[in-house]
Amino acid sequence: MGRRLGAHIVDTVILVVLATPVVPFLEFVLDVDTEPGSLRSYFLTLILRVVYEPVMTAWKGATFGKLLVRIRVVDKEHGEPVTVDPAFGRYAVKEVLNIALLILPILFVLWILWALSPFFDSSGYRQGWHDKMAGTRVVEA
Question: Using CA atoms, how far apart are residues 125 and 82, in angstroms rounded to an integer?
């Protein structure tokens, strides 16, 4: 589980570095003005996150953070690399919980349970809810 956390921290740093020039560019191209922390700003960064995590997972089986800590996402049943559909499905579950948290802060408890869900997995794969819904698991690379 420590590797997953490390990968998440690395990916967050990468996304912050990428968002610094990309979000202002998207604001210019889309002709919108956003304030940091606004809902519009959140959705502009969502574009970047949607391109980064599921695309990298489908292409390489891992994000840069996962590659760095030597873990990857595979199909639960066969241990094969995931395709585009499970990669986007896995990401969508995580993002829906993040958006719900923005709308209803009381859902923070649900977010904590989601983050800890691999610890309570009885399948032996330590799958998070997003892994279970997408039919994936994380393995050492």
Answer: 16
Query: Which residue ranges make up each domain of the chain?
Result: 2-140
Q: What is the CA radius of gyration of the chain?
A: 16
The whole-number mean pLDDT for each consecutive block of 10 residues of the chain, a chain of 141 residues, reads 89 90 80 72 83 95 96 92 94 86 78 85 87 91 85
Q: Has this prediction a pTM greater than 0.85?
A: no
Q: Any idea what the Cα angle at residue 86 is, between residues 1 and 10, rounded to 5°?
A: 40
Distances (CA, A) of 59 to 40, 52, 56, 83, 88: 29, 10, 5, 8, 12
78 HSE (CA, 13 A, CB side): 4
The CA distance from 80 to 30, in Å, is 39
Helix (H, G, I), strand (E, B) or coil at 59: helix
Name the residue among 1, 138, 139, 6 with its Cα closest to residue 69.
6
Q: What is the pLDDT of residue 116?
A: 87
Other C-beta atoms within 10 Å of 108: how many? 11
H/E stretch holding 90:
helix 84-103
